[in-house]
Amino acid sequence: MYKDRNKQKEANRQIQARRRQQGVTKGVTDQGVTGKGVTDNVIPIIEDLPANFGQDDCDCRHCQNNRAKGSPHTLNHGPHKLAGALSKGELNRVALPGDVDYKGAA
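The chain above was modelled as a monomer; its predicted structure follows.
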C-alpha cells in the first residue's frame, strides 16, 4: 500500500492490466459464474413445510411474524400474482434464501 493516493491508483491499474494480459478473470464470464464454492443442481428441502402451509392459519415464519405484528394483511404463498389479481389485504410473499420453500434463482 502506498501512502500517496496517486501512486496507489497507478499500482492498481498496473495490476489490473497484468491480470487482463494473463487472462485471469473472476466472477461472471461469458460461460457463466466461475469460482470455487458454486454448486450445481441444488435441490431444496421442501419436506420441512408446515402441514398448514399457505392456509389462513399457516405456521411458517413469515405468517407468524405477520400475526405477531398485528398486520391485517394475508400472504400469498403461491406463485407471484399481479396487483390486479391480489385480493384486498393480500400481499405477495417472496421466499428468501434460508426459507424452507426457497427454490433458488430460476
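The CA atoms of residues 71 and 82 lie 21 Å apart.
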